[in-house]
Amino acid sequence: MRKIFLLYWLLVLLTVSGCGTVSKMTKETFIDNFTSNLKANWTIENHTFENNLAHFSAKNVAIKNDELILSLTKEKFHKKEYAAAEIRSKKAYLYGKFEARIKATDALGCITAFFLYQPAGDNQEIDFEISGKSPTEITLNNWIDKTSHDKLILLDFNTTAAFHDYAIIWSPNEIKWEIDGKIVHSTTTAIPNKPMHVIFNLWATKSVNWGGNIEQATLPTKAYIDKVKFYTYIN
Length: 235
Description:
Helix content: 10-25%
Oligomer: single chain
Number of strands: 16
């Protein structure tokens, strides 16, 4: 009888624990299918950074057939030789599950990115980055300072041939990266702890080893985002 009683409570504890884990990220708080005014939820960026051969331009961002289209073109814009595209969520979020359905560019020298970012102070960040040079690989990264924690993941599909589902699952003590419903990497190191914005961009890297030579790329090129969702973290 004692064994049955202990087994019963063990099952209860396992059930409660399992439900608690599942319930931490099940309340959907944001979804964008890109069917309405983009500027309601997003800021269209106009800036660049050191390793980017392009400058982000509003005219390289468009919505067509319920898809967000980011373009990279060979044209001088500000002091750069190329124009690219980036959008940033107007709201910042602290912990949750962030999902996006993406088809990346296959152009050499170009990077398609989906990431979370806190620009103030220590530049906290969680990344998905796809290189046009290596469409069957994806680079993951997370930062809370200037130290990189990049991880290269080999895939069994071509990221540029069709849409796939990418998700960042971010909690106070762990980050998980998910592709098409499968966890491909996780870490408990360097976990960001400040609200971050959701960002999508297409840009031209100076790193030929990583992205390939942009001068050999077929341009213009495009990356597509079909949908983005956010589920809040419930402690």
